[in-house]
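Hi R.,

Here's the chain you asked about this morning:
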Amino acid sequence: MITCVVHYKIDPDKLADFERFSRAWIYLVNKHKGQHHGYFLPSEGASDVALALFSFESLAAYEQYRTRFGKDKEFIAADKIRDESGCVIRYERTFMRPLLPNEVDGPPDGWQK
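And here is the predicted structure, written out as C-alpha coordinates:
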Protein backbone atom coordinates (compact mmCIF):
# COMPACT_ATOMS: atom_id res chain seq x y z
CA MET A 1 0.00 0.00 0.00
CA ILE A 2 1.09 3.54 -0.72
CA THR A 3 -0.38 6.65 0.88
CA CYS A 4 -0.27 10.06 -0.70
CA VAL A 5 -0.11 12.95 1.76
CA VAL A 6 -0.97 16.27 0.17
CA HIS A 7 0.03 19.45 2.01
CA TYR A 8 -2.02 22.46 0.91
CA LYS A 9 -1.59 26.17 1.45
CA ILE A 10 -5.11 27.51 0.99
CA ASP A 11 -6.83 30.86 0.92
CA PRO A 12 -8.66 30.88 4.28
CA ASP A 13 -11.27 33.25 2.84
CA LYS A 14 -12.19 30.54 0.32
CA LEU A 15 -12.61 27.64 2.74
CA ALA A 16 -16.10 26.79 1.41
CA ASP A 17 -14.64 26.42 -2.10
CA PHE A 18 -11.84 24.24 -0.74
CA GLU A 19 -14.42 22.02 0.97
CA ARG A 20 -16.29 21.59 -2.35
CA PHE A 21 -12.98 20.73 -4.03
CA SER A 22 -12.17 18.26 -1.22
CA ARG A 23 -15.54 16.50 -1.42
CA ALA A 24 -15.08 16.02 -5.17
CA TRP A 25 -11.66 14.40 -4.71
CA ILE A 26 -12.80 12.14 -1.87
CA TYR A 27 -15.53 10.87 -4.21
CA LEU A 28 -13.11 10.39 -7.13
CA VAL A 29 -10.38 8.59 -5.17
CA ASN A 30 -12.91 6.17 -3.69
CA LYS A 31 -14.63 5.67 -7.06
CA HIS A 32 -11.33 4.76 -8.73
CA LYS A 33 -10.19 2.02 -6.32
CA GLY A 34 -8.39 4.17 -3.78
CA GLN A 35 -9.20 4.73 -0.13
CA HIS A 36 -9.52 8.35 0.93
CA HIS A 37 -8.70 8.98 4.60
CA GLY A 38 -10.08 12.50 4.52
CA TYR A 39 -9.12 16.12 4.29
CA PHE A 40 -8.00 17.87 7.44
CA LEU A 41 -9.06 21.50 7.37
CA PRO A 42 -8.28 24.50 9.56
CA SER A 43 -10.50 24.49 12.61
CA GLU A 44 -9.58 27.16 15.13
CA GLY A 45 -7.60 30.32 14.68
CA ALA A 46 -6.23 31.73 11.47
CA SER A 47 -4.67 29.03 9.35
CA ASP A 48 -3.90 28.51 5.71
CA VAL A 49 -2.84 24.86 6.03
CA ALA A 50 -4.85 21.77 5.06
CA LEU A 51 -3.92 18.12 4.51
CA ALA A 52 -5.32 15.21 2.54
CA LEU A 53 -4.42 11.54 2.88
CA PHE A 54 -5.44 8.77 0.52
CA SER A 55 -4.10 5.32 -0.29
CA PHE A 56 -3.87 2.96 -3.22
CA GLU A 57 -2.97 -0.71 -3.25
CA SER A 58 0.34 0.06 -4.99
CA LEU A 59 2.23 2.78 -6.84
CA ALA A 60 1.08 1.14 -10.09
CA ALA A 61 -2.58 1.47 -8.97
CA TYR A 62 -1.98 5.15 -8.12
CA GLU A 63 -0.36 5.73 -11.51
CA GLN A 64 -3.38 4.13 -13.22
CA TYR A 65 -5.64 6.56 -11.33
CA ARG A 66 -3.41 9.48 -12.40
CA THR A 67 -3.90 8.63 -16.10
CA ARG A 68 -7.41 10.12 -15.80
CA PHE A 69 -6.12 13.64 -14.99
CA GLY A 70 -6.86 16.10 -17.76
CA LYS A 71 -8.92 13.48 -19.66
CA ASP A 72 -11.81 12.30 -17.47
CA LYS A 73 -14.66 14.84 -17.31
CA GLU A 74 -15.15 14.36 -13.54
CA PHE A 75 -11.44 14.93 -12.85
CA ILE A 76 -11.49 18.05 -15.02
CA ALA A 77 -14.59 19.33 -13.16
CA ALA A 78 -12.94 18.75 -9.77
CA ASP A 79 -9.82 20.66 -10.80
CA LYS A 80 -12.02 23.43 -12.19
CA ILE A 81 -13.33 24.11 -8.67
CA ARG A 82 -9.75 24.76 -7.51
CA ASP A 83 -8.72 26.72 -10.59
CA GLU A 84 -11.76 29.00 -10.83
CA SER A 85 -12.06 29.73 -7.10
CA GLY A 86 -8.36 30.18 -6.34
CA CYS A 87 -8.87 28.30 -3.05
CA VAL A 88 -5.52 26.48 -3.35
CA ILE A 89 -2.41 28.63 -3.34
CA ARG A 90 0.13 25.81 -3.41
CA TYR A 91 0.32 22.07 -2.75
CA GLU A 92 2.89 19.31 -2.61
CA ARG A 93 2.60 15.54 -2.54
CA THR A 94 4.57 13.10 -0.42
CA PHE A 95 4.27 9.33 -0.72
CA MET A 96 4.47 7.23 2.41
CA ARG A 97 4.04 3.63 3.49
CA PRO A 98 1.52 3.41 6.33
CA LEU A 99 1.83 1.31 9.46
CA LEU A 100 -1.79 0.94 10.48
CA PRO A 101 -3.22 0.05 13.91
CA ASN A 102 -4.69 -3.22 12.61
CA GLU A 103 -1.13 -4.30 11.70
CA VAL A 104 0.07 -4.03 15.32
CA ASP A 105 -0.78 -7.07 17.43
CA GLY A 106 1.46 -6.42 20.42
CA PRO A 107 4.48 -4.47 21.67
CA PRO A 108 7.55 -4.17 19.44
CA ASP A 109 10.36 -6.70 19.74
CA GLY A 110 12.67 -5.89 22.61
CA TRP A 111 10.21 -3.47 24.18
CA GLN A 112 10.14 -3.50 27.99
CA LYS A 113 6.93 -2.87 29.87
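One quick note: The chain has one domain: 2-97.

Cheers,
M.
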